[in-house]
Amino acid sequence: MANRSEEAEYENDSRRNHQDKKKEGVLDLVLKRPLRWLRMLIEELHWSFFFGVIIVYGVSQGLGKGLSKVSTQYYFKDEQKIQPSQAQIYVGLIQIPWIIKPLWGLLTDVVPVLGYRRRPYFILAGFLAMISMMVLWLHTNLHLALALSCLVAGSAGVAIADVTIDACVTQCSISHPTLAADMQSLCGLCSSIGSLVGFSLSGVLVHLVGSKGVYGLLGVTAGLLVVVGMVLKESPSRSLGRKHVNDKFLDAGSAIWKTFQYGEVWRPCLFMLLSAAVSLHIHEGMFYWYTDSKDGPSFSKEAVGSIMSFGAIGSLVGILLYQNFLKNFPFRNVVFWALSLSVLSGFLDLILVLRINLKLGLPDYFFIVVDEFVSHMISRIKWLPLLVLSSKLCPAGVY
């Protein structure tokens, strides 16, 4: 009897130890390991850089994107009374500052302001975005041309801040090559968490304060870019005359041209260009269809925001998968399989519009949520290795 009781007690102790180890393993994966990772990045890099990444990617791009995307769609539909085809064109115009990002990048590298290459551009970006959002918020019955100009200016402010923090990330990737993938994961993580919060709140905020009220909130978030420009650690450089600036532009152009002559550089760049160029989307048309009471599901503002928040969750899952499991896999394999899955996920919109999902017994909301989650997860996995490669291939002096 004594032996049996001892064996039972031993088994209970073993079971408790196993459960404790399992709990510790989950706690380590969910909390301790991410905290150690963040602490390591802060120790290796300056805290102001870490703060800049959080504000630019997490607040300006992530939260701002979540709020502005939904509010702009409703602004065009309800305030300006324009059709989906027009809205698609105007959204394309708003993206022009992002298309010319290399120009902003050259300016930050070649034209220092008062001896600084990064800080003044953060301040400029903050004021540009803040003023344009305030105009949209305060003015009623704004003419479409002026409203579109403000939206383009706000987009330019976010794009300038983005390319400036990208330059900081690239500099750190060159000085700390072993942390290049970690920095891209940090940027993507901040962006995805910010997008998740933004999309989750966007529908509710548009319902409560209207699309114009959301622009007022975006003006406040844009002001944080000014704070980044004030606190960022940057060593001042010697101010250049106009002749020296022209020489620096020529030197930068020459360095870029020489870099593009290598197959290891121009082939990935061509792939990224073609991948973005042929990835056609109908987001604006799908939004009008989502909210159409005749042919579409007629989703409410809150439902539209929640649907897009699942896209942010998918993006976050993609980052976690890449950081924990895929970043050490061969580059070609990750991109090939992500691109293949991306092609397949493109058919989900067709299934939805043809109402095949209803024939299969899948509700519209459930199917759209799955579509958003899967497509954003695959897109993030596809682009992360390309961003890591880009940061490593960037020529010295051109970030």
UniProtKB/TrEMBL annotation:
<protein>
    <submittedName>
        <fullName>Major facilitator superfamily protein</fullName>
    </submittedName>
</protein>
<dbReference type="InterPro" id="IPR039309">
    <property type="entry name" value="BT1"/>
</dbReference>
<feature type="transmembrane region" description="Helical">
    <location>
        <begin position="144"/>
        <end position="165"/>
    </location>
</feature>
<keyword id="KW-0813">Transport</keyword>
<dbReference type="InterPro" id="IPR036259">
    <property type="entry name" value="MFS_trans_sf"/>
</dbReference>
<feature type="transmembrane region" description="Helical">
    <location>
        <begin position="45"/>
        <end position="64"/>
    </location>
</feature>
<keyword id="KW-0812">Transmembrane</keyword>
<feature type="transmembrane region" description="Helical">
    <location>
        <begin position="214"/>
        <end position="232"/>
    </location>
</feature>
<feature type="transmembrane region" description="Helical">
    <location>
        <begin position="186"/>
        <end position="208"/>
    </location>
</feature>
<feature type="transmembrane region" description="Helical">
    <location>
        <begin position="121"/>
        <end position="138"/>
    </location>
</feature>
<dbReference type="Pfam" id="PF03092">
    <property type="entry name" value="BT1"/>
</dbReference>
<keyword id="KW-1133">Transmembrane helix</keyword>
<keyword id="KW-0472">Membrane</keyword>
<feature type="transmembrane region" description="Helical">
    <location>
        <begin position="265"/>
        <end position="283"/>
    </location>
</feature>
<feature type="transmembrane region" description="Helical">
    <location>
        <begin position="334"/>
        <end position="356"/>
    </location>
</feature>
<dbReference type="GO" id="GO:0016020">
    <property type="term" value="C:membrane"/>
</dbReference>
<feature type="transmembrane region" description="Helical">
    <location>
        <begin position="303"/>
        <end position="322"/>
    </location>
</feature>
<comment type="similarity">
    <text>Belongs to the major facilitator superfamily. Folate-biopterin transporter (TC 2.A.71) family.</text>
</comment>
